[in-house]
Amino acid sequence: MHHVPDPIIALLAPLRRYAFALTRDWAEADDLVQDTMLRGHEQRRQLVSEKAVGPWLRSILRNRFLDRRRQHAAQIKREVDFAQLSPQVQDAPQDDAIRLTQLRQFFMALPEEQREALALVAVDGLSYADAAQLIGVAPGTVMSRVSRARAKLREIEDGVQRPVKALKLVGGTDAE
C-alpha cells in the first residue's frame, strides 16, 4: 500500500473549498479535486519543490476548472440564445421566476474572470483580499473584475424589458 504524504492530505480540504468557490456545486467541486489530484500525480515530475505543492495543485485545479468551462462555452451560448427567444414577460406570479432565469443566464454569459470574481465576492461573500488570494491576482484586480461584471449586468439589465416587479440586481440598486 502506497503511503500518501501528510501535506497532500492537509491540502484536500482547502482544495475542495477552492473548487466549490469556483464551481458553486459540491459534486462538481469533488470531481474537480479528484481530477486535480490525478493530474498532479501524472505530472509529479514537474513539481520543483515539496514546499510548492499547494500552489502547484491550486494552479492545476484552476486550469482544469477553466478547461471545463471552455468545453461548456457552446452550451452556455445555446442557453443564452434560447433565453432570447423565450417570452420575457408573463403573468405576474411568474415574473420573479422569469427574472431569476434571465439574471442567471446573463451571469453565465459574463467573461470567466468577471463571473468568478463576482461569484466569490458578491455571492459567496469573500473579501476582495480572500478572493484575490484564491484566484492568484492582486485585490485591485478582483475589485476591477467585480466592477466590470456589475457594470455589464446593469448594461444588460437596462436593455431588457423589466417585469412590473423587478428584482434587485447583484451589486445593483433598486432605483428605477
UniProtKB/TrEMBL annotation:
A family per Pfam: Sigma70_r2
Any GO BP: DNA-templated transcription initiation
Record field: transmembrane: none
Coiled coil residues, start to end: none
Domain RNA polymerase sigma-70 region: 12-73
GO molecular function: DNA binding; sigma factor activity
Transcription as UniProt keyword: yes
Name listed for the protein in its UniProt record: Sigma-70 family RNA polymerase sigma factor
